[in-house]
Structure formats: structure tokens, C-alpha cells
């Protein structure tokens, strides 16, 4: 079965208030892996108790996310490669988070499929389409640290892909 997922909107959600402008170094452990996003998908089935107009309303989710980004402001920043001098080793590369309020990617999508169409939820290219994508070829400073996709299913269920 072919599952069609149509992206409806893509926007950057920024902190709702000004946040500290600073740079935070990543730990050595954080820098050991290639910078990429590790996808996680959460599914929520519709039920009579949550069948109201606000069930996973995208505007409410974006507003709440903008509030959460105030205390968790580094998530709204970007990675930045730097050359560090000193320590007796000469210049060496290091990565830091530039806390610049550029925001988190928030995507809404819809599908005519139902949650059960994904079967046992084994990793497949179709399941991967429930998470947002970015162009990694533009470099680590170009893409958000957090990507969120909310997909609405025909059955009334919702998935959140991070």
C-alpha cells in the first residue's frame, strides 16, 4: 500500500520572549558523532474523549512551543563550527551552539491513511516521511536543532515526528 503524506505548512517557531544571546560549547561526547537528527515518532489515536476542536491544534502547539523555547533557548539556536586555539595542541575544530533565536522547524502534514496502515511500525521509508527533513548539504549552521512534524490521519489520529 502506498501512503501519501502531503505537507501543508512549514514554519520556524521562535521563542516568545527575548532569550540570552550566547554561545555554548558542545561536550567532547556530543562532538563524537556526525551532527544529524535521530527520528522519533509518537502516535496518538483519536477517541471520543478527545474528539474536540483542539485535539492537537497546530496553532496551540506552536504557541506552546514558543513559550517552552524561552527557558530552553539553546534548542532555538544553530550549531556553529569554530577553530579553537591554545591548549598546546594548536588550532583544532570544535562545535558550539549559537543561541541566536533562529527557531525550531514546525511542519504540519496530512494523510488519507489511517495509523493502522503502518502495520507493526517497523522502520520503513514511508514511516520516515512522518518526520521532517532538512538539507544537510548546506552545513551544520543552516538547519534547526529541533524538527517537529505533526501529521493528521484520516482516522482522526495524529503523529508527532521529531
From TrEMBL:
GO molecular function: acyltransferase activity, transferring groups other than amino-acyl groups
Gene3D superfamilies assigned: Chloramphenicol acetyltransferase-like domain (3.30.559.10)
Keyword tags: Acyltransferase, Transferase
Superkingdom, natural source: Eukaryota
InterPro entries noted in UniProt: CAT-like_dom_sf, Plant_Fungal_Acyltransferase
Keyword Acyltransferase (UniProt): yes
Keyword Electron transport annotated: no
Family note: Belongs to the plant acyltransferase family.
Official protein name in the record: Uncharacterized protein
Organism field: Cannabis sativa (Hemp)
Lineage: Eukaryota, Viridiplantae, Streptophyta, Embryophyta, Tracheophyta
Amino acid at each position: 500500500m502506498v501512503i501519501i503524506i502531503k505537507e501543508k505548512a512549514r514554519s520556524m517557531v521562535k521563542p516568545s520572549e527575548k532569550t540570552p544571546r550566547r554561545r555554548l560549547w558542545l561536550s567532547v561526547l556530543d562532538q563524537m558523532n556526525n551532527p544529524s537528527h535521530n527520528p522519533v515518532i509518537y502516535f496518538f489515536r483519536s477517541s471520543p474523549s478527545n474528539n474536540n476542536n483542539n485535539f492537537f491544534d497546530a496553532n496551540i502547539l506552536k504557541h506552546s512551543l514558543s513559550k517552552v523555547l524561552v527557558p530552553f533557548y539553546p534548542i532555538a539556536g544553530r550549531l556553529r563550527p569554530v577553530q579553537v586555539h591554545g591548549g598546546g595542541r594548536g588550532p583544532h575544530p570544535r562545535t558550539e551552539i549559537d543561541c541566536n533565536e533562529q527557531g525550531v522547524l514546525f511542519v504540519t502534514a496530512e494523510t488519507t491513511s489511517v495509523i493502522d496502515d503502518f502495520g507493526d511500525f517497523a522502520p520503513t521509508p514511508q514511516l520516515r516521511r512522518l518526520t521532517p527533513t532538512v538539507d544537510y548539504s548546506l552545513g551544520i549552521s543552516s538547519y534547526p536543532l529541533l524538527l517537529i512534524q505533526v501529521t493528521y490521519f484520516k482516522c482522526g489520529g495524529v503523529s508527532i515526528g521529531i
